[in-house]
Amino acid sequence: MSVTVTNLSPGVHAIHIHEAGKCDAPGFTTAGGHFNPANKQHGTQNPEGHHAGDLPNLTVGANGKGAFKSTIQNVIGYDLVSSSDSRGERHIEVSS
Question: 57: how many CB neighbours lie within 10 A of its CB?
Answer without folding.
Answer: 13
